[in-house]
């Protein structure tokens, strides 16, 4: 086990909702500090706990993922870890040089050029002029801003600021690296480049990563803290459990009709799930759809497309159901659709429904989140598809 580089013990932070009252409380706390009095532990009028009684430690070689809804206290915690604000209660211990990318453009002097900001930011972290000189070319090359490095930062786009900020924070190989959601601003190519760099840094770095992208969290984190209104709701090394609890906060059964030309109506539907709306992984999923034709414009049996989405509403699979030119005998149609041996891992899934004209391919009806169901599995994985694999294991001589 690596040495502990980040340790938070009983960390709490409170704020006032009203600006004037916040300034007043700040002056009172400052005066009390000068006189040697401790800060009040109780909430005053209009105050609330942004972070309450957080405890964790991160060792060298570990990555802690901070997840939770907007306003859960993640960014406030990161600011305390970076020394921008101090906790009202508890202690924070940080060992080594700290690289931070916690707000878009934070720490940049917008009047100065990108090159000048590299020297400023690296000096604040604790690097000498000689160390910055030795790494300058690598920082500029990693940021891919060679053409714009001598342009004032105020003229940079948000993506360019992220490139420069991450290049400074990571290329100098800090002992501690703090990363907020700002990576979401970068393009896909640069994000992949950042994660490759994080993989290289992680064995010698303690990393705290804040993100709303659960695939990113699962990609690099080996422990997780789920925050809710400043408190810890889940903490541990079981990443899928933490991610699953996060997803459950945002699950919804509401559907939305994106298109309906009035030609047909879904009169009823059923899924072969149990009373808990659950299907076991590996079982067949049977969807029965009953339609009523309401317009003579639909003379041939329409095609149906089912699109399956995971907990993050990413499309993961699709099924197209269409037949040859079959005329409609009466105004009622029943589709019985069987998806064999469904391979989804444990979790909640939704189905989008699209009904289209067989000949023209034009849509007749489109409903997002038409229905949803749970998959039960013996293992918990953050990926939506759990593949069955045949394998052999044997000893061999090197």
TrEMBL record:
<dbReference type="InterPro" id="IPR003439">
    <property type="entry name" value="ABC_transporter-like_ATP-bd"/>
</dbReference>
<dbReference type="InterPro" id="IPR017871">
    <property type="entry name" value="ABC_transporter-like_CS"/>
</dbReference>
<feature type="domain" description="ABC transporter">
    <location>
        <begin position="34"/>
        <end position="254"/>
    </location>
</feature>
<dbReference type="InterPro" id="IPR015860">
    <property type="entry name" value="ABC_transpr_TagH-like"/>
</dbReference>
<dbReference type="Pfam" id="PF00005">
    <property type="entry name" value="ABC_tran"/>
</dbReference>
<dbReference type="GO" id="GO:0016887">
    <property type="term" value="F:ATP hydrolysis activity"/>
</dbReference>
<keyword id="KW-0813">Transport</keyword>
<dbReference type="InterPro" id="IPR027417">
    <property type="entry name" value="P-loop_NTPase"/>
</dbReference>
<dbReference type="GO" id="GO:0140359">
    <property type="term" value="F:ABC-type transporter activity"/>
</dbReference>
<comment type="similarity">
    <text>Belongs to the ABC transporter superfamily.</text>
</comment>
<dbReference type="InterPro" id="IPR003593">
    <property type="entry name" value="AAA+_ATPase"/>
</dbReference>
<protein>
    <submittedName>
        <fullName>Lipopolysaccharide transport system ATP-binding protein</fullName>
    </submittedName>
</protein>
<dbReference type="GO" id="GO:0005524">
    <property type="term" value="F:ATP binding"/>
</dbReference>
<keyword id="KW-0547">Nucleotide-binding</keyword>
<dbReference type="InterPro" id="IPR050683">
    <property type="entry name" value="Bact_Polysacc_Export_ATP-bd"/>
</dbReference>
<dbReference type="GO" id="GO:0016020">
    <property type="term" value="C:membrane"/>
</dbReference>
<keyword id="KW-0067">ATP-binding</keyword>
């Amino acid at each position: 086990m690596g040495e502990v580089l980040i340790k938070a013990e009983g960390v709490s932070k409170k704020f006032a909702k009203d600006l004037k009252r916040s300034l007043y409380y700040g002056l009172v706390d400052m005066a009390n500090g000068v006189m040697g009095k401790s800060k009040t532990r109780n909430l005053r009028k209009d105050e609330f706990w942004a972070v309450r009684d957080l405890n964790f430690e991160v060792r060298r070689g570990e990555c802690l993922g901070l997840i939770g809804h907007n306003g859960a206290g993640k960014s406030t915690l990161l600011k305390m870890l970076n020394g921008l604000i101090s906790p009202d209660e508890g202690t924070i211990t940080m060992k080594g040089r700290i690289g931070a990318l916690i707000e878009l453009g934070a720490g940049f002097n917008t009047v100065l050029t990108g090159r000048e900001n590299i020297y400023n930011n690296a000096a604040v972290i604790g690097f000498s002029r000689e160390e910055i000189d030795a790494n300058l070319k690598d920082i500029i090359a990693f940021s891919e801003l060679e053409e714009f490095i001598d342009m004032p930062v105020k003229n940079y786009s948000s993506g360019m600021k992220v490139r420069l900020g991450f290049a400074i924070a990571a290329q100098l190989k800090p002992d501690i690296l703090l990363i907020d959601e700002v990576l979401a601003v970068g393009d896909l190519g640069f994000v992949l480049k950042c994660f490759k760099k994080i993989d290289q840094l992680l064995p010698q770095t303690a990393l705290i990563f804040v993100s709303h992208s659960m695939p990113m969290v699962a990609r690099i984190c080996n422990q997780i803290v789920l925050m809710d209104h400043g408190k810890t709701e889940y903490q541990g090394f079981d990443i899928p459990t933490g991610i699953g609890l996060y997803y459950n906060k945002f699950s919804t059964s509401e559907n939305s009709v994106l298109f309906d030309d009035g030609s047909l109506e879904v009169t009823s539907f059923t899924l072969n799930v149990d009373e808990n709306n659950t299907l076991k992984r590996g079982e067949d999923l049977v969807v029965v759809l009953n339609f009523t034709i309401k317009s003579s414009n639909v003379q041939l049996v329409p095609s149906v497309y089912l699109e399956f989405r995971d907990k993050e509403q990413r499309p993961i699979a699709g099924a197209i159901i269409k037949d040859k030119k079959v005329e409609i005998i009466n105004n009622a149609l029943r589709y019985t659709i069987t998806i064999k041996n469904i391979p989804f891992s444990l979790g909640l899934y939704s189905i989008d429904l699209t009904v289209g004209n067989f000949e023209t391919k034009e849509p007749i009806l489109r409903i997002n989140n038409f229905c949803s169901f749970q998959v039960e599995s013996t293992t918990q994985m953050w990926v939506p598809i759990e593949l069955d694999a045949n394998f052999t294991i044997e000893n061999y001589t090197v």
